[in-house]
């Protein structure tokens, strides 16, 4: 676990100036900067139930740029880069997702994003980062620089468990910067070691959230959700999987989740279906099917037909050579395939047409307040028509009220999950509830 450096925290007041999207500037006159609108916006995002990610864009070749330019020119380059960055971000990302953009005295530019999700997933950070980098590269073509900035990136989620918000923001920034400057920061080394220990000791916990029949309210399945070691910064699944991805432990971690799930099914004699999340890079790994078969042989008696492989739809499947062929092999073995986060992810309709899933899971961003929003209900109807065409069962995620559930019922949605029905708990507790 990474410790907070109190001396660094005290330097918080000396951080660089705030840069905001043009659409938000009117809300933040100069005198308001003293109240730190980053904190206010992060707090507001938390109050909505959202997570906040910090993405740091750091200049890898800053030392070379300093040698090749005098101080005045370098300041102008930095100023132009910030302006371009601000322009790209406001143009390419939804305004409601942008919490703030902040300049940290040439250490890097930090983009704060509000993530509207309460469940267990790895947000599509890589695609967001790649989009911004590509757009910045396009803009750079117009600049006549002898030495162009080379950006490296890293990201981290702000830990809600830290009581003092400025400390939580600063720590997340430091960790994201460490990820961007891999190998140069002790924080990165600490997180790499922590992930290595988690993988080596298989030190994760699993919770299960029931998936219900909308009409009968009967349990039909459970989705397995992952938590890191209790009481650590990696207990939060967003932190755990973000660090795993950036330290090249993601495949190993997801295979441990599969093994622990099979182990729990055996121990609890769970008889219902199980949904397990996998990212496209893991499914597209050339060893995935072979490793999965090994685990199934280790836990004999569990039929593949009871396991649904959820493809986390916030990742692109482009360029994954083995992805489609692995899915075909999984289906031949007897596994079912679901597309997760439909309606919120990367190229939803294209993914559905490529994968032809057995199950389509509709993201909570479509479901949230659907009883008050006719456009959202129209979106739901459209997705139901697509599911019917594909021959997929539909699961609605993130149901939090009876009113939302009523909309699902009148639209004849098959299955649903969310806090309205049940919060995540252990498989054994789910069995006791059913008994």
Automatic annotation (TrEMBL):
Residues 188-435 form the EAL domain. SUPFAM superfamilies: EAL domain-like (SSF141868). SMART domains: EAL. InterPro entries: Cyclic-di-GMP_PDE-like, EAL_dom, EAL_sf. Coiled coil: none annotated. One of its GO terms (molecular function) is cyclic-guanylate-specific phosphodiesterase activity. This is EAL domain-containing protein. It comes from Niallia taxi.
């Amino acid at each position: 676990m990474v410790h907070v450096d109190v001396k660094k925290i005290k330097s918080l007041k000396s951080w660089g100036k705030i840069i905001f999207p043009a659409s938000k500037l009117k809300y933040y006159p100069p005198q308001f900067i003293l109240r730190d609108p980053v904190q206010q916006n992060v707090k507001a995002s938390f109050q909505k139930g959202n997570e906040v990610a910090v993405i740091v864009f750091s200049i890898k070749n800053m030392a070379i740029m300093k040698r090749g330019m005098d101080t005045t020119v370098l300041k102008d380059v930095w100023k132009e880069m910030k302006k371009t960055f601000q322009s790209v971000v406001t143009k390419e990302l939804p305004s409601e997702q942008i919490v703030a953009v902040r300049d940290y005295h040439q250490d890097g530019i930090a983009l704060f994003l509000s993530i509207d999700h309460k469940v267990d997933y790895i947000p599509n950070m890589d695609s967001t980062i790649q989009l911004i980098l590509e757009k910045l590269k396009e803009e750079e073509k117009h600049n006549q620089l002898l030495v162009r900035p080379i950006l490296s990136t890293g990201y981290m989620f702000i830990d809600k468990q830290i009581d003092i918000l400025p400390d939580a923001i600063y720590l997340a920034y430091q960790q994201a910067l460490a990820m961007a400057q891999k190998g140069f920061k002790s924080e990165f080394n600490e997180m790499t070691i922590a992930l290595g220990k988690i993988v080596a000791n298989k030190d994760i916990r699993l919770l299960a959230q029931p998936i219900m029949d909308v009409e009968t309210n009967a349990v039909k399945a459970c989705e397995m959700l992952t938590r890191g070691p209790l009481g650590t910064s990696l207990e939060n699944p967003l932190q755990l999987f973000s660090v795993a991805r950036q330290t090249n432990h993601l495949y190993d971690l997801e295979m441990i989740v599969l093994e622990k799930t099979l182990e729990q099914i055996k121990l609890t004699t769970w008889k219902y279906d199980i949904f397990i999340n996998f990212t496209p890079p893991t499914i597209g790994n050339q060893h995935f099917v072979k490793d999965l078969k090994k685990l199934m042989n280790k836990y004999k008696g569990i039929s593949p037909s009871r396991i649904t492989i959820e493809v986390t739809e916030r990742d692109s499947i482009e360029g994954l050579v083995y992805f489609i062929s692995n899915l075909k092999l999984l289906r031949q073995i007897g596994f079912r395939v679901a597309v997760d986060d439909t309606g919120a992810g990367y190229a939803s309709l294209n993914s559905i047409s490529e994968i032809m899933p057995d199950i389509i899971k509709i993201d909570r961003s479509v479901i949230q307040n659907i009883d008050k929003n006719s456009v959202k209900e129209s979106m739901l109807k459209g997705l139901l028509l697509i599911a019917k065409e594909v021959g997929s069962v539909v699961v609605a995620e993130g149901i939090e009220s009876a009113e939302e559930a009523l909309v699902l019922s009148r639209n004849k949605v098959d299955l649903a999950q969310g806090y309205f029905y049940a919060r995540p708990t252990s498989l054994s507790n789910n069995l006791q509830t059913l008994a």
